[in-house]
Amino acid sequence: MKILLVIDMQNDFIDGALGTKEAEAIVPKVVEKIKGFDGRILATRDTHEENYLETQEGRKLPVKHCIRGTEGWEIRPEIQELVKELPIDKTIFGSLDLGNMLQKYDEWQEKIESVTLVGLCTDICVISNAMIVKAALPEAEVIVDASCCAGVTPESHRQALEAMKVCQIEVVGEE
């Protein structure tokens, strides 16, 4: 079984509160990646509550974003319509629930051969979830498609890709 993980392709990270031109540029690439993927497709959704600014993350990044129920929290419509399963809501960068779910699926249902990650932000949530997947499925190939990811800055995107390579995560799609 091959899995595509679409990480946090939400309005607030694309053109909302924390959006960037790099994030906007990958939307059509992510759409094409999903359309061409032969396997199970899952998506994560960064999810915060109204008290976000009172949390540790909110104190360190005081920009309200991905507040449950807001337009910014929603996954970009052209992406959501291609992902048949409900998004996996996560309250922090990496999802232990996601890692546990993949591990159980691998052990009890079908062996997971590879997990490919795309989405936002390379240097925060993509790298965090790639590391969790690598820990949960040490024998599965973990792949990040750099052409379908964007970071907070182009430099932090590149740094995250290099860090993942050192951790035996395959990085494809680099320019």
Give me some keywords for this one:
175 residues, alpha/beta, six-stranded parallel sheet, 7 helices
What do these coordinates show?
- By secondary structure, the protein is α/β, with parallel strands linked by helices.
- It contains seven helices and six strands, in the order E-H-H-E-H-H-E-H-E-H-E-H-E.
- Helix 6 links the parallel strand 4 and strand 5 (141-150).
- The protein is globular, with a radius of gyration of 15 Å.
- The mean pLDDT is 97.
Produce a short descriptive summary:
The protein has 175 residues and is an alpha/beta fold. It has seven helices and six strands.
Helix/strand layout:
Blueprint: E1 2-7, H1 11-14, H2 21-35, E2 40-46, H3 56-60, H4 77-80, E3 88-90, H5 96-108, E4 114-120, H6 122-136, E5 141-150, H7 154-166, E6 170-172
Parallel strand pairs: 1-2, 1-4, 2-3, 4-5, 5-6
